[in-house]
Amino acid sequence: MSRGMQWLTAGLAGLLLGMGLILSGMANPAKVIGFLDVAGSWDPSLGLVMGGGLVVGSIGFALLKKQPKTLSGEPLNLPISRKIDLRLILGSVLFGIGWGVTGICPGPGLVLLGAGIPEGVLYVASLLAGMTLYSLIEKLRHSA
Amino acid sequence: MSINWQAFTLYAAVSALTGGFMIGLAAVWLAWANGRIAGISGILGHVVELIVQQKREPFGWRIAFLVGLIGAPVVWAFFAALPASVQQTGSVGLVVGGVLVGLGTRYANGCTSGHGICGLSRFSMRSLIAVCSFMGSAVITVYVLRHLLGVSV
Questions:
Q1: Which of A37, A76, B68, B133 maximizes the CB count within 10 A of its CB?
Q2: Would B1 be classed as within a structural domain?
Q3: Distance from B127 to chain A by nearest Cα, in Å?
Q4: Domain that holds residue B124
Q5: Phi, psi dihedrals of residue B86, rounded to the nearest 5°
Q6: B71 vs B12: CA distance, rounded Å
Q7: In which element (H, E) is residue A133 found?
């Protein structure tokens, strides 16, 4: 598959994912916080997003595992790390705090940016700042 | 715990489930077509990493994926009105929260899509631990902010 085709298939994946986020309610921060607020008036809807995603995902990935050939001819590049360490847990905890404060995880943040919502613009700028900070810290750590 | 039936309508449930199917399908499609995991924080963070480290590596497919994602609301709005999106967090919260999500997802190597959808679909124990950690801390954060501190998030 040509490079242009690879870009097209990746672009379609992003588009479909974004549409799914919009339809599901994941791009509505108030609804996300309503889902996370289990002690208050709880809105379970978003559990179904995870459920629906996992039904399709588990069938799809099981089929791919059986037949690990990609359309582009590129190797199936699946994560190989099985390490469960403090980095994984503390990183996830930090992510959860940020998700709880904003009601926005990275995908929906980009969707809100695309919708031209000011909160989405500020969120994505901060998200990029956090990611840049990580890359700078790791760069310093490795050059030290 | 009480269920918010005003928010959890049949329409909301069907939309959530259908949206979930689409997200799962997008993840399987990217793996099948490009051989890649549809993890948003990984894809975005890798682009940042390549810029900071000044590495030369093809990242066209990543940009294409991100363009598709960011363009989704534009394409949607072309055919139908976008569903309501209610913003509750102020500027300080968005900045602090955004930075924490950026740092945290990079250290954890994944977010709701990479660990939540792709990882759990592949029955990864690592992803299960990640999902429990971030769901747990998100629930506690909302509890503390809303019910202990009385902040309106």
A1: B68
A2: no
A3: 9
A4: 10-148
A5: -95, 120
A6: 23
A7: helix A118-143
pLDDT of A19 over the 90 cut: yes
Beta strands in B63-129 (DSSP E): none
Residue pLDDT, tens place only, B30-71: 999 999 999 999 999 999 999 998 888 778 999 999 999 999
Cα separation values, A105 from A64, B33, B101, B128, B149, Å: 27, 25, 7, 17, 23
Identify whether B56 is part of a domain: yes
Paired strand residues for A41: B2
Q: Are A30 and B86 in contact (CB under 8 A)?
A: yes
- Suggest the residue from B74, B112, B131 to mutate for an interface test with chain A (most A CBs closer than 10 A): B112
Q: Tell which of B67, B70, B82, B115 to mutate to test the A interface (max A CBs under 10 Å).
A: B70
Which residue reads 């990882």 in tokens? B119
Looking at the 3D structure of chain B, how many domains does it have?
1
**pLDDT of B71-105, one tens digit each?**
999 999 999 999 999 999 999 999 999 999 999 99
pLDDT in tens, A113-133: 999 999 999 999 999 999 999
Please name the residue of chain A whose CA is at the shortest distance from the CA of residue B146: A37
In a domain, residue B2? The reply is: no
Residue of B nearest to A15 (CA): B68
CB contact under 8 A, A123 and B2: no
Distance CA A84, CA A102 (A): 27
The ipTM, to two decimals, is: 0.95
Residue B73 lies in a domain: yes
> Quick one: pLDDT at residue B153?
59
Contacts 24+ apart (CB under 8 A), A62-66: A64/B28, A64/B31, A64/B32
